[in-house]
Amino acid sequence: MADADKPKDSPDEEKRETAPEEDTGQASTPRMANEPDDSDGDTVTTGDDTVDAGPSSDPLMPGPDGEVADPAPEDADETDPTSQEAQDEARADDDGMIAHDYGDHSAPPVEDGAAAQDTLTAGTENDATADTVVGSVHADDTVTDDRGEAAVAAGTGGPLVQEKIIERRGGFVPAVFGGILAAVGGFFLSQYLGPTGWPFSGAANFEEETRSALMETRDGMQALQGRVDGVETNLSDVDLSSVETAVADLTERTGTLAADIATLQSDVGEIGTGLNERVDALSSSVEGLQAGLATISEDAASFADRVSALEKAPMEDAVSPETVAAYEAELADLQSRMDEQSGAFDQTVADQRAAMEQAFADQQARMDEAFAQQQAQIEEQRAELQAMVDEANASEQEAARQAQIATLRAAVSDLDTAVRSGEPFQQALGPISDSEGMEVPEALSANAEDGVATQARLAESFPPAARDGLAAARADEPIEGEGANRFASFMARQLGARSVTPREGDSPDAILSRAEAALDNGDLGTALSELEALPDTAREAMSGWIDQARARADALSAVDALRQDLNIE
């Protein structure tokens, strides 16, 4: 405070002290009593402007003994108009700061006739190195200056320093505007702090849903890969060597049976040949017997002729009765022998025929029995072979069916992921539509090219759709209530306000609040069920959102039905 310690003896000294300020373009202004000073001058700082004062231009600056120096008469008459204008501008500052009036005192004129200009510098400039005078600021924007009190306490009898207090008061329009801003800010703050966490609730739900879908897809793919590996292992474990061995054994046994049949046919041929030879021999014997009988018959006939000739011959020589009896006895004996030989021949022929027929019958029976046994063995082996072939075919078909089911389950898993993520799923439907016995539901085929809306998208688009539906429902309802309730209903209708927390009741606002809560919890079916209770006008206003939500719900239900069918199989 070098300048404050020096007494002001004459106006000439003041002029000399203020002369250097001409170079900086700063005008001298009065300085408050008891105000600290330094070599660079004093600075009065406001919210936007800064008024720089000269180091010793205040005529009321007390000396070292605390007295206030009176201004020189000639200085009192000479007032710098530019300095006075700067003071007036400081008093009328736009920020409501206080400008002090020190009566008629002003800074002395500047040498060389140059008009000093007061500079209002911005609060952000850092080139001012003067000390800052800070007054006491109260809640009513009033600044109290103690300059006058310091001057009176000094007892010098100088003029009393007056201060002007400028109070800036707001009007009705700023208050209404501030209230609207506060209401809007409170609404957005309640949305942010609410259960939905707007505007980041959709992103969080989408991230959680996507992560959950990816985890389910990964688990499903791992399970399906394990099942496919198991099917391949089962296919590789199917032992067809026993079937091949049985087929080879059956082939060998069939060859052996064919050889046995050939041997049997050879034996039958040999037996037939032997029988034919025996029949031929028997025929020869019969022919020999017949020839002998013919010879005997001829001999008998010749003997009979001889007897007849003897009987017819004249009985020149009488034959004794003994001779006749001897001839008759011989003839009877010959006839008896002929009868015996004829009976023996007939018996021999009958015996031979019976023996041959019995032998042939026995051989035929043995052949039939052997052939029946061989035929039974062939049929048994054929049945065993067919059973083994059927079992192998069944195993192969079962393995193919299991592989197809695994492929379909993988396709259903991909389809579920695509439906939940909102992507087109035409490619994922390919294996299902190409499979025999599988029918693609209409809910999937109708939205396969474009996909369905995601849960996060539905949650994000629900508030505007709910506001449209609520506005349509309120348009058909009269404003009920009295007084404040009627005014609140009117304002809610005008502003489109609605409940964001679930509440009981059958009003459209309550229904929409419960539907939104169910949607935030991921229960799309419950949300659609709640919306069924809305009036027709509200549902028509929300028809776009309801159609998207129902398409997603139907698609997810169809995917679950396909998965259940595959699990049953």
Low-confidence stretches: 1-83, 92-159, 481-491
Written as H for each helix and E for each strand, in order along the chain, the element string is HHHEEHHEEEEEHEHHHHHHHHHHHH
The strand line-up of the biggest sheet is 4-2-1-5
Q: Biggest β-sheet: count, sense, barrel? A: 4 strands, mixed
Q: List the domain count as a whole number.
A: 4
Q: Strand percentage, roughly?
A: under 5%
Count the beta strands.
8
Tell me the structural class.
Answer: mainly alpha
Shape: rod-shaped
What's the pLDDT, averaged over the residues? 67
Describe the SSE topology.
Elements lengths: L1 H4 L5 H8 L2 H4 L17 E4 L3 E5 L19 H5 L3 H11 L8 E2 L18 E3 L8 E3 L2 E2 L5 E2 L2 H8 L7 E2 L8 H22 L7 H37 L3 H72 L8 H101 L8 H5 L7 H4 L9 H21 L8 H12 L12 H13 L3 H8 L4 H6 L1 H26 L1
Parallel strand pairs: 1-5
Antiparallel strand pairs: 1-2, 2-4, 3-8, 6-7
Explain what the structure shows:
- The chain has 569 residues and is mainly alpha-helical.
- The chain contains 18 helices and eight strands.
- The strands form three sheets. It has a four-stranded mixed sheet with strand order 4-2-1-5, with no helix packed on it. The chain has a two-stranded antiparallel ribbon with strand order 3-8. A two-stranded antiparallel sheet has the order 6-7.
- Helix 8 (201-237) crosses helix 13 (455-475), helix 9 packs antiparallel against helix 10 (321-421) and helix 15 (508-520) packs antiparallel against helix 16.
- The longest helix is centred in the middle third of the chain and has 101 residues, at 321-421.
- The radius of gyration is 69 Å and the shape is rod-shaped.
